[in-house]
Automatic annotation (TrEMBL):
Superkingdom in the source lineage: Bacteria
Gene Ontology CC annotations of this record: plasma membrane
Localization: Cell membrane
Keyword field: ATP-binding, Cell membrane, Ion transport, Membrane, Nucleotide-binding, Potassium, Potassium transport, Transmembrane, Transmembrane helix, Transport
Name the UniProt record assigns to this protein: Potassium-transporting ATPase KdpC subunit
Chief subcellular location: membrane
HAMAP family registered for this protein in UniProt: KdpC
Ranges annotated as spanning the membrane: 6-26
PANTHER family: POTASSIUM-TRANSPORTING ATPASE C CHAIN, POTASSIUM-TRANSPORTING ATPASE KDPC SUBUNIT
Length: 195
């Protein structure tokens, strides 16, 4: 009996106290930014996390993938609607209609009409960003030179495939929108005041 109690306390302290503190400490030292949630802090305030999609309704900014969870990180999840679901079909048609009414040309990229599995995917493919680029440029009233600058901005924030081999080149929508917001060359509308 005494041996069993000793074993219980030994393993509880080792696995329940020491091991978690060791892993926590390693995370804080080796992965400082990630262990804090990869937060973006601007002017002393948390703007968001590079790991989570942020809702964007303004036509002057890029939109992330739709979210079945309403972009709520506490309830992030897929809709679990299957390919035969009438609800899913209606959602997809409404989303296609939205992009068409905004002036989108060609086939709407699937990631702009289907929510991600988590409902919080922060990235878009270059194809989905390039689809939105003329729409954002139009909403901002950008001239040709500013549109070239916007394309350069997209290239600057794009990320390569993971470890250079997994997936494809992608863009973090929050980082892109923050870079767009900060860009002095794109901050003003193209009304002859820009140099």
């Amino acid at each position: 009996m005494r041996r069993a109690v000793s074993q219980f306390f030994f393993w509880t302290i080792l696995c329940g106290v020491l091991y978690p503190f060791l892993i926590y400490g390693i995370g804080k030292i080796a992965f400082r930014e990630q262990s804090q949630g990869s937060l973006i802090v601007r002017n002393g305030k948390v703007t968001g996390s590079v790991l989570l999609a942020q809702k964007s309704d303004s036509p002057e900014f890029f939109h992330p993938r739709p979210s079945a969870a309403g972009f709520n990180p506490e309830s992030g999840a897929a809709s679990n609607l299957g390919t035969t679901s009438e609800t899913l079909r209606k959602q997809v048609e409404e989303r296609r209609k939205y992009w068409s009414e905004r002036g989108g040309v060609g086939e709407v990229p699937s990631e702009l009409v289907f929510a991600s599995a988590s409902g919080l995917d922060p990235h878009l493919s270059l194809k989905a960003v390039e689809y939105q680029l003329p729409l954002v440029a139009k909403a901002r009233g950008l001239n040709e030179e500013q549109i070239r600058h916007l394309k350069d901005l997209v290239a600057q924030v794009s990320e390569p495939p993971q470890w250079g081999i997994f997936g494809e080149e992608k863009v973090n929508v929050l980082k892109l929108n923050l870079a767009l917001q900060d860009s002095a060359q794109l901050a003003q509308r193209s009304d002859g005041k820009n140099h």
